[in-house]
Amino acid sequence: MRKLGIDFYQRANVLQIAKELLGKVLVTNWNGPDGYREETSGRIVEVEAYNGVIDKASHASGGRRTNRNEIMYADGGVAYVYLCYGIHHLFNVVTNKKEAPHAILIRALEPITGIDVMLERTGKKELDNSLTRGPGNVSKALGIFTKHTGQSLLSKTLFIAEDDFVWSKRELATSPRIGVDYAGADAKLPYRFFIKGNPFVSGKPK
DNA sequence: CTGACGATTCACT
DNA sequence: GTGAATCGTCAGC
Questions:
Q1: Residue A157 pLDDT > 90, yes or no?
Q2: Distance A135 CA to C13 C1' (A)
Q3: Using the CA of A105, which nucleotide's C1' is the nearest one?
Q4: Nearest-CA residue relative to C1' of C9
Q5: What is the mean pLDDT of chain A?
Q6: What is A122-153 written as a DSSP string?
Q7: Domain A2-195, CATH among 3.40.50.360, 3.10.300.10, 3.30.390.10, 3.40.50.300
């Protein structure tokens, strides 16, 4: 496993980065209550790209800049985590350089390590598709909260890595983003990328 | 200070 | 398919 470097995140094409994130491994490694590290990780199978100030679906649409989304304007390679519906913590990867507010929402993972810890965090009894299906569930399973916003993705407790795993091209699918109907024409942009047929991908199958 | 609402999820009809 | 949960954020007064 090789941790992705800063250059991966700071490129200008957020759609390209989003596609490349499919198949990578998202890892958290927080200190557990007993002092031991609790590593949890999963392979990324669904993402959505948010393309800066020109993207009406983005929190940074039109150059909108608030205390909440300020971190989107930072140099790429950090986390943007915010609370949605007062319940769900949604985890995003900030990309591009300073002042270019690009972000990629991680929507689903296929669990790899720490499944027992994830079950504990989510209150589930056994592994099924719902454990890391959907952005709210991803954060819950990996123990990601709004307090982690701004944390470097090159840190020891939160990072993304690659191994030698590769998808076949046929498995890559594209669609409009979910839950962004307020964005007018931009709601139709094909900025959601996922692995066709993977059971952890959110939404109805096909 | 106030009110409206959201890049969602889940239980229920 | 419908609706509730739940609270920080933000625009407007």
A1: yes
A2: 35
A3: B7
A4: A68
A5: 96
A6: HT-SS--TTTTBSHHHHHHHHT--GGGTT-BT
A7: 3.10.300.10
